[in-house]
Write a structure and sequence with these properties.
Shape: flat
Largest sheet: none
Distance between the termini: 21 Å
Radius of gyration: 16 Å
Number of helices: 6
Number of strands: 0
Order of helices and strands: HHHHHH
Structural class: mainly alpha
Strand content: under 5%
Number of domains: 1
Amino acid sequence: MDSFTVAIGLGLIVSLMFTETFGLAAGGMIVPGYFATQFGRPLDIVLTFAVALLTYLVVSAVANFAIVYGRRRIVLMLLVGFVIGHSVRLLVAAVPAINSPTGSCIAVIGYIIPGLIALWIDRQGPAETVGTVLTASAVVRLCLVMTGMEVLV
């Protein structure tokens, strides 16, 4: 099994443990696994949090003019996160100055990850969500390093 698959599985377990133990969600059950595999790319993590925060602000602004609760709010968060994340990907690809000399460029992690994080920012607050996501991701990354599936970067 590859390290990404194991990271997602461990992320599910760690997220559940954090929710049951501390009462705080790690931005969605799969987010810590995704983030754990990207710890060597901190700008990607920062960019993903920025897109999630922008998603939260956009949906909050829309909620001032429309009735957005329950499933509608969840779907709107995921869709807006997807659209903003994809737009940022296109922008980064179009601006050569953003790309690094090695050919890699910063990118938003995942497609629904920003929307999931935005949803939990809305539900439990930004500091709690960001802190829980980073802590749970670090635990998953530590487990991967201890089992030899990942190396420290």
